C-alpha cells in the first residue's frame, strides 16, 4: 500500500469503535493489555493453563538469544490437546469439521469423537509402517479430512510433519523432502478443483527417484483416478489405516519436542524449514485464537479460508481452533467452484460466524460484486479477519460493509510462518479499528518500528518492524541451518528479531504494515523469493540471465515480473519470443508451482547492472510499476533501462 493512501484515510479520520455487544461479551477485557504488560512472561505462563499437561511446567521462559525455550519441563501431547480432551470433557458429539468438498455432492460432518477415532487409527497405521517419534513425515494433500488426521496422527506419535502445499511441483517436493530427510510421504491420488480431478500422486512419483530414502508413501483414494503403483513403497490409506484399532494411547512429549516444519521462502533460492515445537506454540495459537476471534466454543462456527499447506492453516485451522474445541468449516475448493457465490452459500448453510481469509480473496470477491453477498443469508457472521498481506483500505471497507454488513468488527492480523501465531492485531470488544491498520501488538508481545540504525521511530513515522522480546510460538530455528537463522533474523538490528516488513506508526501510535522490504514477494498471500524464481528461470536451457521483481497488482497484491536475457543461439532464432515466453512461464510452473508463474516476462538484450556487476532491481521495479525511473548514472549502460521500459510497454498489452 502506498503511504499516500494511508494518509488519505487517516485525514478522513475513519475509525470504528467496537460494537456495544462485543464490548459487553468479548473474551478480552479492557484490562488485558495492562495485565500482560505487568509481567508478560508470567502472563504467558497463565495462558499455558489452557492446555492439558501430563506434567505441568514449573518453568516459563529460558532465553538465550536467539533461542527460546518455553515451559521446558512440562510434558504434553499435541493431539490429545486437540482431540482427546474434548471427548473426555463430554463434547465428543460436537462437530469438529463440516467438511465441504469442491464438488457440491461431497460433504461430511466429522465430530470430535469421529476425529479421535480417525486420528487413533491413523497413528496405529503410521506406526505399522515404522513411523516413530522424531521422524520427519511429508504431507502433500488436498484439503480433505485425512490431511488434518495425518497431521494430528504424526503429532500423536511425536513425528515431525512437514506439510507441503498441494500446489507445489515435483522439484519443490524433492527439495523439501531431502532438506529434512523425510522418510515417509502421505499423499492422495488427487483432489478436485472446480469439479475437475487434479493429480497429486503423479508429482510424488516424479519426485521419488531423487528421494531414495523414502521408505513408504501412503495414498488416500480421493478421486479414484488411475495412478502408477510402486509395490512395497506405496500403500493405500484404506488398506493401512481403516483396519487399525481406534484405540491408541498417546505418549507425552517434552514441551520443546518438535511439532512441525513449514518450508517458506526467504531471500535465497533455497526454501528454509521453519521449526516449531509443542508447548509454547500451542499456548500462543490457542490464546490468540481465543481472544482475536473472540471464540465461544459452544456456539461459533469458524472458517479459516486458507490451505493447510501454509502456516495460517496450521495455526488457525488445525492447532488453535482444535485446542479450543470449536466447530469449523473445512473447504476443499476454490472460491468459484460451483459458482461465484459458493462462499456465501457455505456461510449460509453452516451458519459460519467467524471468517478469516486473505486480502487477495477479499479483492477477488469484491470484483465479483456485492450483489452475490445479498443472494444469501450471511447474517450468522459476527467477526471478520484478514491475514497474509497488507490489506488496502478499500478492500477492508468492502469486507466490513458487504460481508460484515457494518456489524462485524474486522481484525487485520499480522504474523509470519516464523512467528507461528498472530502478533499484531486489534482485539474485538476493545480496539478501535482503522481500515488497513493492524493496530497494536497482541498482549504479551513487544513490537517496535525502528529506523535504519535500530532506533525507535516516533508517531507519524515509518521504519522496519522488529520484535524485541521472545514469544511462545516463535520459531526454534531453521532446520539444519543455525547460521542462516541468526543471519536472516537476528543480525540486522542488534538484539531484535527483524521480520522483513516495513511498518509505520500513525499519529495515534497505531501500526500499519507496509509489505516486505527484502526480496521476498507476496503473491496472493503466498511467499516467494525473487531468487527462487530467478533460479528456476536460469535453469531453462535458453536463458542466460534473469531478474525478477514483485510489481503491485490490483488483485493479487503483487505479481511476478521477470526480465530475461536469452542465450545467443535462442535470442537469434528470429521469432518474436512468444513461444519462448510461454515455455518459460510453464517451466517456472513446473519447477516451483503455478503460483510462481510470472505475470509478465520481458525478453531484453541486457539487464541494468552497476559497474560492480550487481543487477539494479530497484530500477526494474520502477519499470514494472510504470514509475518514473530513478538515478541511472551508476549503471554500466544507462541506456538499457530505456530499452527495457519500451519493451515493457510494448509487451504489457500482449501478456495481460
Ligand atoms: C505478510 C502468513 C500486512 C508480511 C501468516 C509477512 C502481512 C508475511 C499481514 C508472512 C498483514 C502477513 N498485513 N502484511 N496483516 N500478514 N503479512 O510466512 O509481509 O506466509 O512478513 O505468514 O506476510 O507470510 P507467511
Question: How would you explain this protein's 3D organization?
Answer:
- By secondary structure, this protein is an alpha/beta fold.
- The chain folds into two domains: 3-503, ANL, N-terminal domain (Rossmann fold); 524-655, GMP Synthetase, Chain A, domain 3, CATH 3.30.300.
- Helices cover 33% and strands 22% of the residues.
- The strands form eight sheets. Strands 5-4-17-16-18-19-20 form a seven-stranded mixed sheet, sandwiched between helices.
- α6 (112-129) crosses α7 and α11 packs across α12.
- It is globular, with a radius of gyration of 24 Å.
- 5'-O-[(S)-ethoxy(hydroxy)phosphoryl]adenosine (WTA) is lined by residues 264, 310-312, 387-390, 412-417, 438, 499-501, 513, 515-516, 522, 527.
Provide a brief overview of the structure.
The chain has 656 residues and is of the alpha/beta class.
Name a few traits of the molecule:
seven-stranded mixed sheet; 2 domains; 29 strands; alpha/beta; GMP Synthetase, Chain A, domain 3; Rossmann fold; 656 residues
